[in-house]
Amino acid sequence: MSAARVLRLGPVSLRARPRALTVCGLLVAAGFMLGIVLLGTGTLPFSPGEVMGSLTGTGDNAMADRVILRLRLPRVLTAVFVGAGLGMAGAIFQSVSRNTLGSPDMIGFTTGAATGAITQIVLFDAGPLATALGAVLACIVTGAVVFLLSRKGRTTGGGRLVLVGMGVGAILTGINTVLLVAGHLDQAVSAQIWLAGSLNARTWSHAVPAGLGLLLLAPVALAYARRLDITEMGDDAASQLGVGVERLRLVMVVAAAGLTAIATAATGPIAFIALAAPQLARRLTGAPGVPLLSGAVMGAVLLLTADLISLRFPFSLNLPIGYTTGILGGGYLLWLLTQNRRV
């Protein structure tokens, strides 16, 4: 566990952990380098110098400027915002549920978003905007249902949240299958493409909402981070220290559901990121508490890495990002289950 240092700026004091700051700095640097490589990867490859020239406005390659700024930069920024949102949401859900499997793709939130999107595509032949709105609304409704059903007496959270979420997710998976079977072939194919999760053809209309959603909801989660850390000691101890545990859980679940909904609406379902990012961040930083910021940075780096792998997959398969993260996530989950007998 890394030692914390207190920095005082007038009436404001901040706790800083050198190891956590170093790890986050290295992750940001890795994410930046991955972004540069991704911006130069494609049918028209560009060198890092050409990419930096286009980003800074000092380049003299008009073709590179058009391809990088109009086509590839929105894709990379979408990956950053979605990965960060999922990483932070995963940290919140794992803290609230007190379970390493408590991620939105494991407890039904992502499946709920998929139900909303499939309903729009199959039943209403909706376009991208209506599909995204349907995914956001359905994810939030699913979160409310899981939260309410997981209440036992006046408390929520714990393993009950995971079990209820898995049950709701199983029901929604069946509904999704029925919708796909009942729809016309073209609509079913469109829905399957959305369900694959993809960063292909991402534009500023995807990147900007994802960025704004993260900018809106992340401060809410960070504002309650200290109180969420206190709940790690148990509900009774947190209550004695003046923390309104149930109100805190409600606020954090709403914030996490919003982050998940916006991320899923931007790219479709993306597995593994919300599950692995917080745990990897905690292991690397060695810091106690809920890894909201470090989990967000790790999520962005993981999604950028998965995108690079999908673009450079052997045999020129160019797998959708959702399939790539699913393959990686399956391996990680098996490793997690063999290492942690308490899961």
UniProtKB/TrEMBL annotation:
InterPro entries: ABC_BtuC-like (IPR037294), ABC_transptr_permease_BtuC (IPR000522). The chain crosses the membrane at residues 20-40, 76-94, 106-123, 129-149, 161-183, 203-225, 250-277, 289-309, 321-338. One of its GO terms (molecular function) is transmembrane transporter activity. GO terms for cellular component: plasma membrane. It is found in: Cell membrane. One of its GO terms (biological process) is siderophore-iron import into cell. It holds the Pfam family FecCD. SUPFAM superfamilies: ABC transporter involved in vitamin B12 uptake, BtuC. It is a multi-pass membrane protein. Keywords: Cell membrane, Membrane, Transmembrane, Transmembrane helix, Transport. Belongs to the binding-protein-dependent transport system permease family. FecCD subfamily. PANTHER family: FERRIC ENTEROBACTIN TRANSPORT SYSTEM PERMEASE PROTEIN, FERRIC ENTEROBACTIN TRANSPORT SYSTEM PERMEASE PROTEIN FEPG. This is Ferric enterobactin transporter FepG. The lineage of its organism: Bacteria, Pseudomonadati, Pseudomonadota, Alphaproteobacteria, Hyphomicrobiales.
